[in-house]
Predict the structure.
Amino acid sequence: MEEKKHTVLAIGAHIGDAELTAGALLAACAVHGGKAVTLALTAGEKGAPPGADIAEYRRGKIREAEAFAAELGGESYVLGYEDGLLPDNDEVRFAVCDIIRKVRPDIIVTHHEKSMHKDHEVCHRIVVDAWFYAAIEGFQRSLPKHFARHIYFAENWEDAPGFVPYVYLDVTDGYALWEKAIDHHWFAVHSASFPYKEYYSHLKRLRGIQGRKGYCECFMLPPEQVRLTQTLEEI
């Protein structure tokens, strides 16, 4: 039987969020002939190093997002909202809804609901609602409805409160490509405040050990989807 080729849309509050937490899933999808797409609701420009021009740093981060996606043969989208001031409104929700309808993903990945960063929490709420809006024909937009069957919430060191790994996805086949692609993100390799690439590299290996695989990325599910169905024969 032919392997299914998935389309994955990973949505972060800032450029780099999705690439770090779900980047190996995106890469594994690409390696197996699927489509990898990132969407950042802000550029994350407020993380500019001391003395850097914020506007130029923003433009550079957009180029980095494009370069990461290009390594995977995919696409990147960046909305124009200001880092740290992501609005919690339906304008953003419908902007995300429209991209979901355009990309038509099988899997959506975004932030867990609790975070030390307000933009991450707002992004979670936006994406969950946009996932619903995109699936409902009554929300008439320029593109037809689309229901993404799976929505996952990624493991992020900034989103630790209440995060409990539930899904361990084997991303071994995409790990080498992710390790190459993430180098396009300057902060992931050169940040003086946190060793992003090193942390997420080790985390993917740790989760791989726990999942009895080479490398894994862990995700939570919406509470209503957390269930285990078994037959008596399987117990």
About this structure: The longest helix spans residues 54-71. Residues 45 and 217 are 26 Å apart (CA to CA). The first strand starts at residue 7 and ends at 14.
